Amino acid sequence: MAKNSVEINASSNPSTDTSIGFETMRQKKRKSQLTWYVFLLPSFLGILLFMVYPIVESFRLSFFQSNGTIENFIGLANFKLVLTSATFWNSVWNTFFIGIFQILITIPLGFIFASLINSTPRGQNFFKVVYFLPNVTSIVAAAMIFQFVLHPEMGIVNFALEAVGLPSPGWFSDPSTSKWGVIFLAVWHWIGFVIIICLANLQAISPEMYEAAKIDGASGIQQWFFITIPNMAGTFAFLLITGWIGALQRFNEVYVLGGPNGSPARSIQTMGAFIYERGFTGFEFGVASAATYIMFIIILIFTFINLKVSKMKL
Q1: Where is it localised (predicted)?
Q2: First and final CA of the chain: distance in angstroms?
Q3: What is the phi-psi region of residue 64: left when phi exceeds 0, alpha when psi lies from -120 to 50, beta otherwise?
Q4: Based on the domain organization, do 12 and 122 belong to the same domain?
């Protein structure tokens, strides 16, 4: 009888029921987490296969002389070859020249357009769509269109220049003007993104600041210089960093316009095109891998400089 009462008391003990309940909840939580891990597994495997593995393999190949089948360890010889190559430094110069003027033109011009759109009471959505359309256009398709737009004989730009008595340059056939053709294409393609980002920040500035400035007698231009521009510092820093990263990785448009060697006369060959030419045209995968890591270091240095100049913390 006493034994039965102990068993009844044990079975009716609240602490025992609570521990069983907690254990059931833990099992359900583990099962739920396992389900999410199963769903994440394909993405995780994709990252390992298409991102982590190429990075590691490229680093390994940079120390080998490799044509894809035969490999020979040569240490730092690939890095020395790239750093002493006049063709590589020419591609660095082309990359920086195009990137600098793209940024210098696009960010100020995009900010001005965004300010004008923001001051327009009606039709803002229409202007957003119109200016952003080039950004969603494939850069390959845009480059092919610009080949016709800037054609030296049949292009609409040269036709307009001749109509007003100005000389018509051979945009993509003359080494002295080919870089500017790429710059115009880059500005046209990127300016919509700059406008949208600037417009979003402009609309986030508190109207009370402008109302206070009006009470103090500040003109529209003064408000623009002393309220709008200072409040856009973070946006300008973001656009500067993303613009530099994109500019230093430029490949698609110059490949369409001038091939892997950046014709005419390698005048538009960028670092990305140099890497492609050595790797997939010359089958020098070790040299291409070394150039890739040199480009990565250059991008890292300029990103760090941009962050410091913009007074942003890493």
Answers
A1: Cell membrane
A2: 73
A3: beta
A4: no
Residue 169 — very low, low, confident or very high, per pLDDT cuts 50/70/90?
confident
Report how far residue 244's alpha carbon sits from residue 111's, in angstroms, rounded to the nearest whole number: 17
Q: Are residues 14 and 21 in contact, defined by beta-carbon separation less than 8 angstroms?
A: no
Does one domain contain both 301 and 155? yes
The DSSP code sequence of 161-213 is: HHHTT-----TTT-TTTHHHHHHHHHHHHHHHHHHHHHHHHHTTS-HHHHHHH
Q: Are 254 and 268 in contact (CB under 8 A)?
A: yes
Phi and psi at 269, nearest 5°, equal -75, 125
Q: Provide the residue type at 237 as one letter.
A: A
Residue 288, domain extent? 80-310
Number of folded domains in the chain?
A: 2
Q: What is the pLDDT of residue 23?
A: 62
* CA angle 132–133–138, rounded 5-degree value: 120
- Shortest CA distance to 113 belongs to which of 124, 99, 102? 124
Is 182 in contact with 175 (CB distance < 8 Å)? no
121 and 151 both lie in a single domain: yes
d(CA 248, CA 302): 10
What's the pTM?
A: 0.82
The string of pLDDT tens digits covering residues 190-207 is: 999 999 999 999 988 888
